[in-house]
Amino acid sequence: MRVIVCGAGQVGSSIARQLAGEANDVTVIDNDPEIVHKLAETAEVRCLVGGASLPDVLDEAGAKNADMVIAVTYSDEVNMVACQVAHSIFGVPEKIARVRNQSYLLPAWADLYSPDHLPIDLIISPEIEVAHAIERRLQVPGALDMLPFGDGRLRVIAVRCQDGCPIVNTPLRQLTEIFPNLNIVVLGIMRGDKLIVPRGDDQMLVGDEVYFVADSEHVERSMAVFGHEEKEARRMVIVGGGNIGLFLARDLEEAHPELNLKIIEVSAKRAQFLAENLSRTTVIHGDALDSDILTEVNIAMTEAVIAVSNDDEVNILASLLAKRAGCQRAITLVNSSNYAPLMGTLGVDVAVSPRESTVSTILQRIRRGRILGIQSIRDGLAEIVEAEALETSPLVGKPLNEIKLPSGILIGAILRDGEVIIPRGDSVIAVHDRVVVFAAASAVKKLEKLFAVSLEFF
Known about the structure:
Blueprint: E1 2-6, H1 10-21, E2 25-30, H2 33-42, E3 46-49, H3 55-60, E4 68-71, H4 76-88, E5 94-98, E6 122-124, H5 126-139, E7 145-149, E8 154-160, H6 175-178, E9 184-191, E10 194-196, E11 209-215, H7 219-225, E12 235-239, H8 243-255, E13 260-265, H9 268-277, E14 282-285, H10 291-296, E15 304-307, H11 312-325, E16 330-333, H12 343-346, E17 350-352, H13 354-366, E18 371-377, E19 382-388, E20 409-416, E21 419-421, E22 434-440, H14 447-450
Helix pairs in contact: 1-13, 5-8, 5-13
């Protein structure tokens, strides 16, 4: 596939690296020579300096033969115009644009993006993606992340193994003997910066971040086995009343009428706007780093603080101050990848990355065909994929213990006619089963052969 990525920021460079690593032909355009030079030195991509929406620059990037344009510059207007030029002049079949300004996304103007106007096939709003990512995490108290698959029948949960976790230092193959009713599969283990795709002899250690898949009906029981029995939060404080804070508050008001919800916003004008547009949320004008403000919102009795301001440092410090004052859990928005490895040691319970949310949405669009769902984790270290097994797949018709899976790939769950099957050695995948697979980045390309999928989506 020939892909042009407009914008070499965090999202653009991440998606370019992932696609290039899968042997796609990737060209990146950015008007910052320093960023372009850095990307060219660290990734197998072609880089151009120039305006991403200019016809001559897109022509030089190979738009005449491109299969897709992904426009993720910092300008909504450049992204939209780049898609228009790619369509009108070069006939690029697939266009994706990141759009931040919510005025462009109002339902009243949805017709703007029709083929006759602005022909954009997928519009991504990072703020909405992040709000949804936070809502997912709130659904499972104690989880670092929660990813739904199989039309909601399956959950992939990320948890941190803490002191007292009853299943640490136990070989995974023994878990079913010790907990015969535990219908889960451990998909991946993050130990520091190292990703482990586990086999039966591997063990989980205190401090590990573990990804496991479970039937949605068994999530609470599974979390208890990992030592997480936190109760769902009923008192929450949101730090930052920007678009993310507003979207999140609206959704929480609608889904949880009983919730005691407060927002701290530093701008008086924005605080007034929030008060006028939220019905049951208490809006506090002030600085979340001010101890008096934290006392005013009764942070000591708050079960969750969600820091989503536009400043990483404010989010981290506000989370730590809230935890120190007695708040039980902190969910923190972190844009910079430099901070991500520090979150656990600092005491932040959950870090949310806009980049990961946006990249996963883009990959979902790229991997079409028999790929039904996809989530990128840990900045592309691995992917969790839901795919349909075809007649030609080597997975079909054989017990799993007779199939030699490629290194870095683990089958986590099977969904057949609405029934969840946690795979064991004698499980057999049937044609049209939906299969959830965990794949390390180095093994993602092997999914093509594993599911016998043609190049229509790779």
